[in-house]
Design brief:
Strand order of the largest sheet: 2-1-5-6
Radius of gyration: 21 Å
Low-confidence stretches: 298-303
Number of helices: 10
Number of domains: 3
Largest sheet: 4 strands, parallel
Structural class: alpha/beta
Strand content: 15-25%
Mean pLDDT: 91
Distance between the termini: 28 Å
Length: about 300
C-alpha cells in the first residue's frame, strides 16, 4: 500500500529532502501526488510532481500533507486547516530526518495514539523527534527513581490526585528556580517551569489527553536493584535504559559516547536524531518490535 502525499513548500527544506521522498517512492511506501507553494503557480511540474494551487488541495485525493517549511510552518498549518485539511493528516517535514524511516511503521505509530510515561525528558524529546502530539503529562519534568517506581505501582490513582505545590528549588546551575509539586506522597520536579500555576495548567491539560489503552512506560537508572524493581511492575510495553548488560529485553543497555559525562545525557541523546543517537530505532522501539537495535557491535542482545 502506498500513501498519497501532498507537499506544501518547495524551498530549501524541500530541496534537502527530495531525495528522501524519491527513496520512499522507490520503496513504494509513498507517492507524491502534488506539490503546492506560493509563487510557483506558473509551473506545471517540479521534479516530476504536479504543481497545484493550494485551493485545489481538498479536491485532490491524498492521505497526508507534509509541511516543508520551518519559518512558515505555523502559517501553512493555519491555512491548511482553514482549507479543510484534517489536523491528523498534516505531518511535519522533520519525520523525513528519522534514520531508517519506514513510513508505514510511522503511520502505524501515529494512529496508535501512544502515551509515553517517563521519569525524565525522554518522552517529550521522543514526541518532538517524531512530530507527534504529546498526549502525556510526563513532559518537561523529572521524578526521582524511587518516587517514579511508587507512582508506576498505582499510576491511575496518582494521576487522579491534584498536582499541588510543595516547595521551590534551584536547578543544577543554581540560577533558575522551579516548583517541586506533589501528587499525594510522590514528588514531581517541574524543572522546565518557573511558576507552580503554569506547571499545574500544563499537567492538567496533558492528563486529559492520556491514552490508557496504549501506554509506553520508560525509565532510566544506573541501579541494578531499581532496574529489577522496574521489571516487576506490570505494563504491557515498558523499557528501562541501563548502563549494564542484562538478559531481559525490557532492560536496554545504552553506552555513553563522545563527551557525555552523565548517563542521562546518553539516554536523552538517543531520544533525538542528533549526535550519539545510534542505539535503537525509535519507531520500532515504541512499537515494541523484537528487533529495534541499530548496532551490531553494542554489548546488548538486541540485534
Amino acid at each position: 500500500m502506498k500513501f498519497n502525499i501532498i507537499i506544501w513548500g518547495v524551498g530549501a527544506i524541500y530541496n534537502k529532502h527530495v531525495n528522501t521522498l524519491k527513496y520512499l517512492e522507490y520503496k513504494e511506501e509513498v507517492e507524491v501526488v502534488a506539490v503546492t507553494a506560493r509563487g510557483y503557480s506558473f509551473l506545471k511540474k517540479i521534479d516530476g510532481y504536479p504543481v497545484i494551487d493550494k485551493d485545489r488541495i481538498t479536491d485532490t485525493s491524498f492521505d497526508y500533507l507534509i509541511i516543508m517549511s520551518e519559518k512558515g510552518r505555523d502559517e501553512i498549518l493555519y491555512e491548511a486547516l482553514e482549507l479543510g485539511v484534517p489536523r491528523e493528516k498534516i505531518l511535519p517535514y522533520k519525520i523525513l530526518d528519522i534514520p531508517n524511516l519506514n513510513f508505514h511503521e510511522y503511520i502505524k505509530l501515529k494512529k496508535s495514539k501512544i502515551s509515553i510515561i517517563s521519569n525524565n525528558c525522554w518522552g517529550g524529546l521522543v514526541y518532538e523527534t517524531l512530530g507527534l502530539e504529546c498526549i502525556s503529562p510526563f513532559k518537561n519534568l523529572f521524578l526521582v527513581e524511587k518516587e517514579y517506581l511508587k507512582l508506576l505501582s498505582n499510576m491511575k490513582y496518582y494521576l487522579e490526585l491534584p498536582l499541588e505545590l510543595d516547595r521551590y528549588a534551584l536547578d543544577d546551575s543554581g540560577e533558575k528556580r522551579y516548583p517541586i509539586m506533589r501528587l499525594g506522597d510522590v514528588e514531581v520536579h517541574c524543572n522546565h517551569d518557573t511558576e507552580a500555576e503554569k506547571a499545574q495548567v500544563n499537567w492538567n491539560r496533558r492528563c486529559k489527553k492520556i491514552n490508557y489503552d496504549n501506554l509506553f512506560v520508560e525509565m532510566y537508572t544506573e541501579s541494578k536493584k531499581l532496574a529489577e524493581e522496574f521489571l516487576k511492575i506490570n505494563y504491557k510495553k515498558k523499557v528501562c535504559f541501563v548502563p549494564f548488560e542484562s538478559k531481559s529485553d525490557e532492560l536496554i543497555y545504552v553506552q555513553k559516547v563522545n563527551n557525555q559525562k552523565e548517563f542521562w545525557e546518553s539516554v536523552n541523546s538517543n531520544a533525538g536524531i542528533g549526535n550519539g543517537s545510534y542505539s535503537y530505532d525509535i519507531i520500532k522501539l515504541l512499537l515494541r518490535e523484537k528487533s529495534f537495535s541499530r548496532c551490531e557491535n553494542t554489548k546488548s542482545k538486541h540485534s
